[in-house]
Amino acid sequence: MVEPVDARITDSYMKERLTNTTEPSATVGQGPRAIASRLPTDLIGVAGFTVLAAVLLLIVEITMPVARVAIGFPLLFLAPGYVTVSVLFPRDEPPARTERVPLIGQTLTVTGTERAALSFGLSFALLPLLGLLIAATPLVYTVTSVVGTVCGFVLVGTALAAVRRARVAQSDRYQFSLARTIDALYTAVFGTSSPVHTAVNVVLVVSMLVALSSVGYALVAPQDGEQYTDMKLLTEDDSGELVTADYQTTTEPGESMPMTISVENQENAEREYTVVVQEQWVEDGSGDVFNRTEHERYSYELGDGDRELTNGTVTPDAESGTVRIAALLYEGEVPESPTMANADQSTYLWTTIEEASGDEDTDG
Prior knowledge:
Organism: Natrialba taiwanensis DSM 12281
Distance between the termini: 159 Å
Region (Disordered): 1-29
Number of strands: 9
Keywords: Membrane, Transmembrane, Transmembrane helix
Protein name: DUF1616 domain-containing protein
InterPro entries: DUF1616
Number of helices: 9
Shape: elongated
Largest sheet: 5 strands, mixed
Radius of gyration: 37 Å
């Protein structure tokens, strides 16, 4: 005989079944779209673009003007301001008056158009400050230092903005919408009641884009300002510092003269140099060299910004008279007969060879 089933057991069993069957529906909300909606896609996009821009400008070193403008314009005039705005305004709207506002909290509502305008404005304000930061460091003002400083600022700002948003409830966080931003910008430019106002807005926007693109290209162009190679003859002063003064102007026959050669590469690329040290006899009046003797050759392979100091000595062959000790710098191959005329750079110093005067015996 089959015993009747308790109705309470049946109800409990059915509730458990219903609960188990509804659990998967909770996980549906954890799909890719739901996860993407929680991520700061705009900040991820800015960080990814910044890394890509650094690779293309510093490692690949693209030279196409259009490509450099397309990369340099948003990197310089949009990204720094955008991450700053994102740090300052992580919410879609400010918290209610009943909520406790932190020390650095959002108290204003910022629309998409205002965020775009602030991004450009703050980028303009930040670039001179970043330039002053470069000037305050040992860095040289080059494409590498400019792009590296801007990219570093943007990536740090992106991380701070992401942390600020994560501390806001998801329902209150700012969510970037490309369609909404484009629609707001379109309305700001073309949503006027007068065709004249619309035409003025278009002209202003086009003029601003052209001007900013020109400045952006100038800042990230391959030409990094003045390019040069510098060579100097140095000597030590009484404090041991290397200076371009107080050279040894007299020496005795067979005596060696200390001389330090400085070669510095600021050509924005690696260079190979050779320095030829000569002793030259020069005719009085005409200044023509009638005899020359090569004493040393120094070879250098310097990267951009590198400087090499060579401590050497020169022993003049002349037994008397005044000779010119010349340093001739060549980039690449050295001619068969090195002269000051065919050298890329040259510098020299004069020295007089004199016999040491001894004390004569005056005793009778």
